[in-house]
Design a protein that fits this description.
Layout (H helix, E strand, L loop, with lengths): L15 H31 L19 E7 L2 E6 L3 E6 L5 E6 L2
Antiparallel strand pairs: 1-2, 2-3, 3-4
Length: 102
């Protein structure tokens, strides 16, 4: 029985377009790996927990519950469930202003 593929010791030279294709695939693989590393690096650096510190206790008026909190330079605001926005000083915690929501 004969071999379907003849074995020869002579190496067949690789065609130019096949060499180019191999180079392009290798380049694409390297670019994709670098891209994944960059995306993961950006996600890690951007999604770290950099939330500014809030006071341990916020003294809300009696009967008011907090719905949302936002911060600005030197102040923080609390939106209450009784339709008010309470603006506090960030360093002292004193109430600066009350805004009624209509």
């Amino acid at each position: 029985m004969s071999d379907p593929l003849p074995q020869s010791d002579d190496a067949v030279p690789e065609p130019g377009h096949l060499r180019l294709l191999r180079l392009l695939v290798t380049t694409l693989t390297v670019v994709m790996i670098v891209g994944v590393v960059v995306v993961v690096g950006l996600l890690v650096t951007r999604l770290t927990d950099d939330t500014p510190p809030l006071p341990d206790q916020i003294a809300l008026p009696d009967g008011a519950g907090a719905l949302a909190v936002t911060m600005g330079p030197g102040w923080y605001a609390v939106v209450t469930d009784d339709q008010r926005i309470l603006i506090f000083d960030a360093t002292s915690g004193d109430l600066r202003q009350t805004v009624e929501i209509e």
